Amino acid sequence: MFPYLDFQHCINKAIETYRNDLFLYGTPKGLPTLIPVIARHLANHQVFAKPANMFITAGVQQALSILCTIPFPNGRETVLIEQPSYHLFIEYVQLHKLPVKGIRRTAQGIDLDELERLFRTEKIKFFYTMPRFHSPLGTTYSRKEKQRIAELAQQYDVYIVEDDHMADLEHDSKADPLFAYDRFGRTIYLKSYSKIPRENILKLDVSNVKEEAVEKGINQLMAVLHAMRL
Ligand SMILES: Cc1ncc(COP(=O)(O)O)c(C=O)c1O
C-alpha cells in the first residue's frame, strides 16, 4: 500500500542532490537550506515563527529530550504532563528521574481549574501537551481551551511544549495549533515529520471506513489506528 518506489526515488534523489552536506558534520540547528523550507511549511499550519528560532532535530523525541535538559528562563524543573500521555516521553522522564506532575485528561478535556492550581502551586518548567489528536485518546482541545491554556501559561510563567505530531492528518482548515492562540510567545511547537509515510497508510484506511463511522469521530479512528501503531 505504501508507495515504496516513490519514497525510494525521493531518498535517492535527496542523497544525490545533497551529498556534499549530508555526510559531513551538520550545524547545531540542522541543514541551513532546509530551515526556510520548514518555515514555509509551518506557516501553512498557522505556525508563524522566525527561521532564526527554528531547530531541526532527529524527531520530536530528541527535541523533548533537549527541552528537558536545557535550563528555561523561568528557572524551574518540574515537567507537567497529561495523563495519559505519550508513553515514550513518560518512560524518558521516569528513566531520568525528572521532577514530574500529571494532570488527568479525558475525552472531555482537562480540568482548567486544576491546571491553574498546578501552574500556581508547583514549579512547572513546561506543560507537555498534545492539543490535537492526543495520543492515545485521539481527542483535540477546543479553541477556548487552547486560548485558556495559553493565558494561564502567561499568567504563571509556565512554558507550553506543544506536540503536534499528527498535524498532517488534519482535515479541518480552521483547526489551528495552540501555538496560533498564544499571543505571549510561551509555546514551543514540535512537529514530527516521521509520520508522513504513515499518513498515506492512515488515509487509505480511513477511506475504507463507513461514512457514519467517519462522522462519529475521525479523531477516535486516528486513536485506534495509532494504537495499532500503523
Ligand atoms: C505523541 C507522539 N509524539 C511524538 C512521537 C514521535 O515523533 P518522532 O518520530 O518525530 O520522534 C510519537 C510517535 O509515535 C508520538 O506518538
UniProtKB/TrEMBL annotation:
Annotated Aminotransferase class I/classII large domain residues: 7-195
Molecular function (Gene Ontology), one example: pyridoxal phosphate binding
Record-annotated membrane-spanning stretches: none
Keyword Transferase appears in the UniProt entry: yes
Recorded coiled-coil stretches: none
InterPro entries: Aminotransferase_I/II_large, Class-I_PLP-dep_aminotransf, PyrdxlP-dep_Trfase, PyrdxlP-dep_Trfase_major
Key words, A-Z: Aminotransferase, Pyridoxal phosphate, Transferase
Any Gene Ontology biological process: alpha-amino acid metabolic process
Cofactor dependence: pyridoxal 5'-phosphate
Name recorded for this polypeptide: PLP-dependent aminotransferase family protein
